[in-house]
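Observation: inputs received (chain + S-adenosylmethionine).
Thought: call the complex predictor directly.
Action: predict_structure
Action Input:
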Amino acid sequence: MNGTLYLVATPIGNLEDITLRAIKTLQQVDIIAAEDTRQTLKLLNHLQIKKPLISYHRHNEEIKTDQLIKELENGKNIAIVSDAGTPIISDPGEEIVKVALQNNIKVIPIPGPCALITALIASGISAKEFSFFGFLPLNKKNREEKIIQIKEDTKTSIIYEAPHKLIQTLQDLKTHIGQRKIVIAKELTKIHETYEKGTAEELIQKIKEPKGEYVIIIEGSQQTKQQNVIQNLNQLSLEEHYQYYEQQGIEKKEIIKQIAKDRKVNKNEIYKQFI
Ligand code: SAM
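Observation:
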């Protein structure tokens, strides 16, 4: 009979945040697959648990998945843990879950700490709907695309950020999202847990030397998608604005009316430009 794959969340700082079920699972499994075995060993020593540890990280995920699936098929129970928080969330684990499910191996999540949820609930920013972006891409074009998505998103946006990139990210947010409220949650559940609030510009002034771990929570855009489209169209030349509607098969008279409405000017003014 196949063993079971457990996805065990571990503390993001405060060791008391480990759940009773996580402890019980780590005590009962045959193998623990850890992102960084040294880091997990510290937790296991604290919990007085001794188990065979296998390293399972981003760079060996594929090879180790095969090995761990074989162990599961031999009836071994395995727990996946990351360095901190919930496995798979900006951490390895997705690959083995996919393969395990394809092979009819049972996957059981053991929920617990997760930095994005911890930061969100204490931020004071709406948690009704939100988008999680993980770490922003380093590639300039991909990064800008993500920031534009954040700019246009009416839901709350959440980003993970490393300390040495925090100021650059705030600079990028300042350029694109201007005055929206941002909360920066630092060192959650640890001694130096803090929350800084303000616009991107205010936060750049406040945070001089970023140190520690950060989650950035950004208030959703107040503009609807349609308002965003109009804002972008108004930044085009009149000809480009016209072409946009023309490509949708709209007639000249209607296009002029629509451009005037978008730009909040009299339609005769637009009409004169096209004679
Ligand atoms: N899987 C983890 C989780 O469930 O949150 C996230 C892992 S990701 C590799 C690490 C990032 O999560 C950090 O760079 C930081 O952005 C965020 N993070 C993790 N622990 C944190 C903490 N105690 N305080 C603030 N941010 C934290």
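Thought: report the result.
Final Answer: Residues 125-218 form a domain with the Methyltransferase, Cobalt-precorrin-4 Transmethylase; Domain 2 fold (CATH 3.30.950.10). The first helix runs from residue 20 to 28.
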